[in-house]
Design a protein that fits this description.
The chain is built from 12 helices and 9 strands. By secondary structure, the chain is α/β, with parallel strands linked by helices. Keywords: Receptor, Signal.
Length: 323
């Protein structure tokens, strides 16, 4: 008499458990938008599109990349900051848009409090390079050259307030150098003018510079990673050469609105890390010189938090502005 009731209850519990598991396994969005706050073709856009096939397959949803550009990445970053925390809108953010710009612009939303870190996607070191006509084969020789002729030398960057610009300002501050910053509208024009000898030097991501360094028109003096760059293994790091403050990488990661539930953040982290570990994506990242290591959301959040005071202090000390 009571056995059927017991069996019925057990079956109900099993069905409930299975439905709960299925509900968790099924991602809650039919379409995921990855917002790239920079134009098509740039590193953020390329990395966002690199994630699409893997995430789409693993989550069984459509994944698209949407470029929302302008204001040094602030428009796209703010769009995601203000979005619903439902896991449907992601940001492919970087060090400039998430950590640096908050010190240079009056933002409607502070990315540090309005966004939640999910997973690091890439970390690309910078390279200090000079036009081949510059008579310096090392960082020490370059510094001596600039000190010998104050005011003669300048350095290019893709824009005021960029990582590239602030590294140049750090070199000026640390070594008490008299040189001028020349801002451009993007890395492309800055690289072109250093190649042509219009500007003698610059900092740039290793991923962008390897083809040009092979041309012989420019020369790499040092990179800024904690270890030597995969794509420039013969070039010493600034740290190796005795400049410990120059351990800087142009990092990129996925962020979601701060109110996104932890379960979704963890699910996204797991699938993003799986995509990054796939053979095709891992090979592409290696060619870019990315120093990748799998991180949990908590580890990535701790890394971002550690970056905040470094850039705050450098912007303040250098007097850098967005103009």
């Amino acid at each position: 008499m009571y056995i059927p009731r017991v069996i019925s209850k057990i079956l109900c519990l099993i069905c409930f458990g299975l439905s709960a598991q299925l509900a968790y396994a099924q991602y809650p969005c039919p379409v995921i938008k990855i917002i790239s706050p920079y134009p098509p073709g740039g590193a953020s856009d390329v990395l966002a599109r690199m994630l699409v096939p893997g995430l789409s397959k693993q989550l069984n949803v459509s994944v698209i990349v949407e470029n929302k550009t302008g204001a040094s990445g602030n428009i796209g970053t703010d769009f995601v900051s203000s979005a619903a925390g439902d896991g449907c809108t992601l940001l492919l953010g970087n060090s400039t848009g998430v950590v640096i710009n908050r010190n240079l612009y009056k933002l409607r939303n502070d990315p540090i409090t309005s966004l939640r870190p999910v997973a690091e996607v890439a970390a690309v070191p910078m390279v200090l390079y000079v036009n081949s006509s510059v008579p310096a084969n090392s960082v020490a020789e370059l510094i001596a050259l600039i000190k010998k002729e104050p005011g003669k030398y300048s350095f290019a960057s893709p824009g005021s307030g960029s990582t590239h610009h602030l590294l140049g300002e750090l070199l000026k501050l640390e070594q008490k150098l008299d040189m001028t910053h020349i801002p451009y509208r993007g890395s492309g024009p800055a690289i072109v003018d250093v190649l042509a000898g219009q500007v003698p030097m610059a900092f740039e991501a290793t991923s962008a510079m390897v083809p040009h360094l092979n041309s012989g028109k420019v020369r790499a003096l040092a990179t800024t990673g904690a270890v030597r760059a995969k794509n420039l293994p013969d070039v010493p790091t600034m740290k190796e050469l005795g400049y410990p403050k120059f351990v800087v990488e142009n990092w990129y990661g996925i962020f979601v609105p701060a109110k996104t539930p932890t379960a979704l953040v963890n699910q996204l982290n797991k699938e993003i890390n799986k995509t990054l570990a796939s053979t095709e994506v891992a090979e592409s990242l290696s060619k870019m010189g990315s120093l990748n290591a799998e991180q949990t959301p908590e580890q990535f959040a701790a890394f971002v938090k550690k970056e905040i005071p470094y850039w705050e202090l450098l912007v303040k000390q250098s007097g850098a502005t967005a103009e």
